[in-house]
Amino acid sequence: MDRLEAFKTIAAQASRGELAFPANVEASIKLQQALVDPDCHVDLAARLIQADPLLAARTVAIANSVAYNRSGTQISSVRSAVQRLGVRTLQTLVAAVIVRQLGSKLTDPGLRAKVAQLWEHTAHTAALAQVIARRVTHVDPDTAMFAGVVHEVGAFYMLSRAGDFPGLMEGEPEDWIEHGEAIISARVFEELMVPEHVVDAVAAMWTGMRALPPETLGDTLLLADDLAAVRSPMHTRPGATTPQAARTIDFAVGDGTLQAILDESKNEVQSLYAVLML
């Protein structure tokens, strides 16, 4: 089977709801389902998080990060971390675990390198989106960070399937965009219970024009993606800003500028990025 036929096969499977997830991803999806339940309260969320030692450590770490620890008071218990963060931030952390797990079983060095680069790009984008949302666009910061975490989830899924289809990523990686990205991403978003307004924001990011100053969740995500220090190995947006040009993006925000805000928020972005990279 040539690689274009393989892309079409994977897309056809996805369209029928036949998504192939590793066992550890299935377990994390069940956890996400529990957190999305409106009846999930703090005590239950804390118990669910404590059952996963790595996730518990990440939860405490992000609660102590500069972005979430305004008082400077360090905490050590998962329950206290859950109380500080809220369930929506926990959903972002679980989504981050799921996305990273998608490529965890790959053994090919080239594919593992792509997954590593894609996650670095994702972590940069998510951290920047949280700060830009809070300081510039004033959309919900937790939603913005969640959108940053999941905006390339279709690409992660495709990479995870490359182990079953030798040579899948040996040509132009963006061939998969033409031969199945929309179907695959939609089905993975559905499986991960990504809210419709986040799906719409991701779609706007890929197809829209950057508005300066940015206003919407899609604008926030697009600007964060442009400013991310690490580029995606799986996507080049039409009209995307080069890394060199991205460093020159600036505009007025109230009495200041975007660059001033980014300079002031450097530690916050770094702290969020570091937690997502754990």
UniProtKB/TrEMBL annotation:
Q: Which organism was this protein described from?
A: Pseudoduganella flava
Q: What is this protein called?
A: HD-like signal output (HDOD) protein
State the organism's lineage. Bacteria, Pseudomonadati, Pseudomonadota, Betaproteobacteria, Burkholderiales
TM helices/strands, residue ranges: none
**Where would I find the HDOD domain in this sequence?**
21-208
Q: Which Pfam families match?
A: HDOD
